[in-house]
Design brief:
Layout lengths: L2 H4 L3 H8 L5 E5 L5 H14 L7 E5 L2 H15 L8 E4 H12 L10 E3 L1 H14 L9 H13 L4 H6 L1 H9 L5 H14 L2 E3 H14 L1 H10 L2 E4 L7 H11 L5 E5 L14 H9 L4 E5 L1 E2 L4 H12 L10 E2 L7 E8 H19 L6 E5 L5 H10 L4 E3 L9 H14 L4 H7 L9 H14 L3 H6 L8 H18 L7 H11 L2 H7 L3 H22 L13 H9 L14 E5 H4 L4 E6 L16 H15 L2 E15 L2 E4 L4 H4 L6 E2 L7 H4 L6 H6 L9 H12 L43 E4 L3 E9 L6 E6 L3 E6 L5 E3 L2
Parallel strand pairs: 1-7, 1-8, 2-3, 2-6, 4-5, 6-7, 9-10, 11-16, 11-18, 12-14, 12-15, 13-14, 15-16
Antiparallel strand pairs: 16-17, 19-20, 19-23, 20-21, 21-22
The protein binds a DNA duplex (15 and 10 nucleotides) through α4, α5, α7, α11 and α27.
Length: 785
DNA sequence: TGGAGTATACTTTTT
DNA sequence: GTATACTCCA
C-alpha cells in the first residue's frame, strides 16, 4: 500500500480509494477534509489518471493554493502543476478567455469587480431617471446578484410573480428593468461581473454542444470543495460537466453552511444523491483538531438546529480546558480583556502571536481589538479590508490598462478620461454618454469619431489627444509584456508624476503603492510558473483577469507571527490554538437582521458552530454589556448561544455574576484575571512596558512603519493614555484658544469652532497627532489647566 | 473644477 | 464614531 494511504483512518481511506462513480463526503469540522481531498487527487494520479483530466474547484484562492502545495508534497516532482485546481471564478474565467466569443463576448472581456458593477447599476438607474434614494445601487446590485446566482434571467425575473410582488411591496418595481439594462450594458462593455463568470460559463456549456463535450472529455474527474456553499449556478455547471463520466466528488459539511445570503443552498447536498443512480456517501466524523470539551460543546450547539444531515463529531484528543465565558462592561473593555489575555497566555504558556485569533460577527467590531492590541504592542493582521487592487490609485492605473485591452470598458474609460486632468469635464462626459446611448455606440467609439459630433474646437482637440494616446498604448501590446506597457502608461499619462509631486503622507503612500503595483506586474511577468502546462500568457489581459479575482486575504502571509483578526465567515476552514469568539450579544450575534425566521437563526447558529470549532486548545467566548453602535451607546443582553452551551463545559469565573461583581472591577481585565496568580505579574501597565521592551515603542506618526504593524496600516495614531479621573467638560464650555485633552488623540489646542449649533465641531491641533476635526456631540474633551 | 461642507450608511460577502 | 459619497459654492 502506498505511503500516503497509511496516515488515514478507515473512513478517510474509503473516501480516497473510491475512484469510479459519484461520491459525497460529509466532512465534519476538523475531520481532515483537505487531507482527504489532496490524498484523493494524489491517489488518482498514482492510479494512472492524467493530471490534465482532473479538475478541482474551491471557493478561495488560498484553499486552491494550499491544495496544490499539499499534492505536490505528496507526489514530489512537478506532475501536480498540470492539475486544474482553482476557484470556480478563476477556472471559469480562464476557460472563458478561450471561449467567450462563442457566446458573443470578446475573449479579452473585462472582469468587473463589485465596485465596477455597482457603478454600472448606478449609471443605469440615473439614465432611467429613477430615484436613487429608493433605488440604492448596492441594494439593487445585491438583488441582481441573487437573481444571477439562482439562474434567474432578466426575463424570468420580470415575469416571476413572487419576485415581482416582493419588489412591488418594497416600492421598487423597476428593478426588473434595471436588471435587464444592467446585463445589456455589461454585454455592450464587453464585461462580466463575478456572477457572470459562473453564469456565462453555464450558458456556454448549455448552448454549445462542442464546448460542453470538450470540457466533459477534458475533466474526467471533478472534485468540489466546500460543496455546501455552492449556489444553483455552480451546481448546474458541475452537473453538466460531470454528466459524461459521473466521476464527481463533492466534499462539504451542511453544519458549516454560512453563505446562504450569497445564494448558497444546502439543497445542493441533498439533491446530489438524487442526481446519480448510485452515490457513495462517506461521513468523516472523527475530529483531529479540537479538545473533547470543544467538540462536545460544538455538538450540543449544532444539535439545536432542526434541518441537518445527522452526524456526531467525536475526538480522541484530550479533554482540555473549559470554555471561558467572559463578560465585560463595554466593547473597549472587551478589547482590552482580549489583548491582556493574549499577552498573559503568551507569557505563561509560550504561545506565539499566530496561535491566536479574534473572531467576530461584523467587521465594525475590529476597532476595539485593534486599539487594544496596538496599545500592548501585540502585532496583528486584520483581514477583511480593501484589497490592494481596490485602492484608488491602483484602480486608476489599472483602468488605463483595462481600456487599452478592451476599449468597450466604459467603467475604465469614465474613470480616467479626465484623470490626470486634461480638460474633459462633466459637461463633455455627459454629452459623450448621451451620444453613445442615442447612437447605440460605446463611449470610445464616440470619442474616435468625435469630429462628427460638434464638440467645441478646444474640447475636440483634447479628445483627439486622448484617443491618440490610448491608441499608442494599445499598439504596444503586440511587442511588449504587461510590465513594459504598464510602466510606459504610468509615465506617459503623468499619473506617476502627479502622485510623486504630492508630498503629503497619503500622497507618498499612493506613490509607493503604484511602485509596488509596477513591481508586482514585473514579478508576475518574470515568474516562470506554467500552470496547466499550457502556453503561459504573460500578456496584459491575463494579468488583469488575475488581479480582479484576488482579495485582501491573498495578499497577506498566513504564517506571519501575528494575531489574526477577522469575521467568522472569513475564518471558515482555518484553525487556531486559541480562539476568542467576541461580541456574543443578542442583536449582534445572532444579528438583528437574522432572527426573523428559523432558517436565518439556524444559519447564525451554524456560524457559532463554525467559530467554536476553529479552536484547537482554548476557547474564550466574550460579550460586552454596552457597545457603541453607529455612534450610539447601546445595552446588550448576552447571546442566546451562550446559554445553548452545556453549563458543565463552561468556566464563568471570569464573567462576574452580574453588576455586583463588576463594580469591583477597578483595573483592567488583565489585573482582575491575574490577581489570583500569586504575584510575579502585577498588571496591564507593566505588561505594556514589557511589550515595549520586546517590540519597541508603540507606533507613532513620525516613525516609519514599525515592523510589527501590518503593512496596510496607513492611519497611525499615537496612543494616548488619558489622565487619571478624566472628566469631560460640557460642549458649551469649549472655546477657541483653549488647551484640551482628548482621550485618544491627547493634548491639543482648539484652533477653530464650526458647524451648526446642533452639530458643533472643533478643529484641534494636537501635539502628537496633527490637526483633527472633532465632532463635539461624540468626542469628550477635558479643558486643561 | 475642485475642495470643503454636508449627508448618509453601517451584517455576513469566499469571487 | 467613522468612512465615504454627494453637493454646492467660489
Amino acid at each position: 500500500m502506498q505511503d500516503y494511504i497509511k496516515g488515514l483512518n478507515e473512513r478517510q481511506k474509503e473516501a480516497v480509494l473510491h475512484i469510479q462513480g459519484p461520491i459525497m463526503i460529509i466532512a465534519g469540522a476538523g475531520s481532515g477534509k483537505t487531507k482527504v481531498l489532496t490524498t484523493r487527487i494524489a491517489h488518482l494520479m498514482a492510479s494512472g489518471i492524467d493530471a490534465f483530466n482532473i479538475l478541482a474547484l474551491t471557493f478561495t484562492n488560498k484553499a486552491a493554493r494550499e491544495m496544490k502545495e499539499r499534492i505536490e508534497h505528496i507526489l514530489g516532482g512537478n506532475e501536480a502543476r498540470n492539475l486544474y485546481i482553482g476557484t470556480f471564478h478563476s477556472v471559469f474565467a480562464r476557460i472563458l478567455r478561450a471561449e467567450a466569443h462563442r457566446i458573443g463576448y470578446p475573449n479579452n472581456f473585462t472582469i468587473y469587480d463589485t465596485d465596477d458593477a455597482k457603478s454600472v447599476v448606478k449609471a443605469v438607474i440615473n439614465e432611467m431617471h429613477l430615484d436613487d434614494k429608493l433605488y440604492k445601487p448596492s441594494q439593487v446590485y445585491n438583488r441582481i446578484s441573487s437573481a444571477k446566482n439562482a439562474l434567474v434571467s432578466p426575463a424570468d425575473y420580470a415575469t416571476d410573480y413572487y419576485v415581482q410582488q416582493e419588489d412591488i411591496r418594497a416600492n421598487r418595481p423597476a428593478i426588473a428593468k434595471i436588471y435587464d439594462s444592467y446585463c445589456k450594458r455589461c454585454f455592450k462593455n464587453g464585461a462580466m461581473d463575478f456572477d457572470d463568470l459562473l453564469l456565462k460559463f453555464y450558458e456556454l456549456l448549455k448552448t454549445n454542444p462542442e464546448s460542453l463535450s470538450k470540457y466533459q472529455h477534458k475533466f474526467k474527474f471533478i472534485l468540489i470543495d466546500e460543496y455546501q456553499d455552492t449556489n444553483p449556478a455552480q451546481y448546474e455547471v458541475i452537473k453538466l460537466l460531470g454528466a459524461m463520466h459521473e466521476n464527481v466528488c463533492v466534499v462539504g459539511d451542511d453544519a458549516q453552511s454560512i453563505y446562504s445570503f450569497r445564494g448558497a443552498t444546502i439543497q445542493n447536498i441533498l439533491q446530489f444523491q438524487k442526481d446519480y443512480d448510485e452515490v457513495k456517501v462517506v461521513k468523516l466524523e472523527q475530529n483531529y483538531r479540537s479538545t473533547q470539551t470543544i467538540i462536545n460543546a460544538a455538538n450540543d450547539v449544532i444539535g439545536k438546529n432542526k434541518g441537518q444531515i445527522p452526524k456526531v463529531l467525536f475526538t480522541e484528543n484530550a479533554e482540555g480546558e473549559k470554555i471561558r465565558i467572559v463578560k465585560t462592561m463595554s466593547d473597549n473593555e472587551e478589547g482590552k480583556f482580549v489583548a491582556d489575555s493574549i499577552q498573559e497566555q503568551k507569557l505563561r504558556n509560550h504561545f506565539l502571536n499566530k496561535d491566536f485569533a479574534i473572531l467576530y460577527r461584523t467587521n465594525a467590531q475590529s476597532r476595539a481589538f485593534e486599539e487594544a492590541l496596538r496599545r500592548m504592542a501585540i502585532p496583528y493582521t486584520m483581514y477583511g479590508g480593501v484589497s490592494f487592487y481596490q485602492r484608488k490609485e491602483i484602480k486608476d492605473l489599472v483602468a488605463y490598462l483595462r481600456l487599452i485591452i478592451n476599449s468597450r470598458d466604459e467603467e475604465a474609460l469614465k474613470r480616467i478620461i479626465n484623470y490626470p486632468v486634461r480638460g474633459i469635464g462633466k459637461t463633455t462626459i455627459d454629452k459623450i454618454i448621451l451620444l453613445a446611448n442615442t447612437h447605440n455606440k460605446t463611449m470610445w467609439e464616440i470619442l474616435v469619431e468625435a469630429a462628427q459630433h460638434g464638440f467645441r474646437a478646444g474640447t475636440l482637440e483634447v479628445i483627439n489627444n486622448f484617443v491618440t494616446m490610448i491608441r499608442s498604448f494599445s499598439s504596444m501590446l503586440e511587442k511588449h509584456n504587461a510590465y513594459e506597457v504598464a510602466f510606459h502608461v504610468g509615465k506617459n499619462t503623468n499619473l506617476v508624476r502627479e502622485l510623486f509631486n504630492d508630498k503629503s503622507t497619503e500622497g507618498l503612500q499612493r506613490y509607493e503603492n503604484i511602485q509596488e503595483l509596477l513591481n508586482s506586474i514585473k514579478e508576475w511577468v518574470e515568474s516562470p510558473d506554467n500552470e496547466d502546462g499550457e502556453v503561459v500568457d504573460k500578456g496584459l489581459g491575463a494579468y488583469l483577469q488575475q488581479i480582479t479575482l484576488l482579495t485582501d486575504a491573498d495578499e497577506k502571509d498566513p504564517d506571519a507571527d501575528t494575531v489574526k483578526l477577522m469575521t467568522i465567515h472569513a475564518a471558515k476552514g482555518l484553525e487556531f490554538e486559541c480562539v476568542f469568539a467576541a461580541g456574543l450579544e443578542e442583536m449582534l450575534f445572532p444579528n438583528a437582521m437574522s432572527i426573523n425566521t428559523r432558517e436565518e437563526l439556524e444559519e447564525e447558529r451554524r456560524l457559532f458552530y463554525v467559530v467554536v470549532t476553529r479552536a484547537k486548545k482554548k476557547l474564550w467566548v466574550t460579550y460586552a454589556n454596552t457597545r457603541y453602535k453607529f455612534g450610539q451607546l447601546v445595552q446588550n443582553e448576552p447571546s442566546r448561544f451562550i446559554e445553548e452551551l452545556p453549563e458543565q463545559l463552561l468556566d464563568r469565573s471570569y464573567a462576574g455574576g452580574g453588576t455586583k461583581m463588576s463594580n469591583n472591577f477597578g483595573g483592567s481585565a488583565f489585573e482582575r484575571m491575574n490577581s489570583g496568580f500569586g504575584g510575579g505579574w502585577s498588571g496591564g501597565k507593566k505588561a505594556a512596558e514589557d511589550a515595549e521592551k520586546r517590540y519597541g515603542p508603540p507606533p507613532s506618526k513620525k516613525s516609519a512603519t514599525p515592523s510589527y504593524l501590518p503593512p496596510k496600516m496607513e492611519k497611525k495614531v499615537t496612543d494616548h493614555t488619558p489622565t487619571e479621573n478624566f472628566v469631560a467638560n460640557e460642549v458649551t464650555e469649549l472655546a477657541v484658544g483653549q488647551k484640551v485633552e482628548h482621550q485618544k488623540f491627547g493634548f491639543g489646542e482648539i484652533i477653530k469652532m464650526e458647524g451648526a449649533s446642533h452639530n458643533p465641531m472643533a478643529i484641534i491641533k494636537f501635539e502628537t497627532n496633527g490637526e483633527k476635526k472633532i465632532l463635539l456631540n461624540y468626542a469628550r474633551l477635558r479643558i486643561v489647566g
